[in-house]
Design brief:
Elements (H helix, E strand, L loop, with lengths): L10 H10 L1 E4 L3 E7 L6 E5 L7 H18 L7 E7 L8 H14 L4
Parallel strand pairs: 3-4
Antiparallel strand pairs: 1-2, 2-4
Length: 111
């Protein structure tokens, strides 16, 4: 689990990342990135009701958190990152999601 200092939790922080951040789309996720003034990254995960019911949305967030924890050392520090799940995410294998995450992070210039 990500510690409190590594999470984006307030809606005004999400809005700032959406409005001022760079958008990088992938096949299964969309990533919004904005530099922050700290020496570590902060992540936020968004799953809308278009993705599915609560069980499906929670599973998607758990999978993304697991990917972030395994890839933490390869991501450049000092960014606020919001990961938005697309509606074709459920039913996709974990390996494809992990691969898409790596591709999107490279496109965003964070790896």
């Amino acid at each position: 689990m990500l510690g409190k200092e590594k999470r984006i939790s307030r809606s005004c922080e999400y809005n700032t990342v959406y409005q001022q951040g760079r958008k990088t789309p992938g096949r299964y996720i969309i990533v919004f990135v904005i530099p922050n003034l700290t020496d570590h990254n902060r992540f936020g995960f968004v799953t809308s009701k278009k993705v599915g019911k609560a069980v499906t949305r929670n599973k998607a967030r758990r999978q993304l958190r697991a990917i972030v924890q395994t890839e933490w050392d390869t991501i450049k520090p000092g960014y606020d990152i919001v990961v938005v799940v697309r509606k074709n995410f459920p039913g996709t294998s974990f390996d494809l999601i992990k691969k898409d995450f790596s591709i999107v992070m490279r496109k965003a210039g964070l790896c």
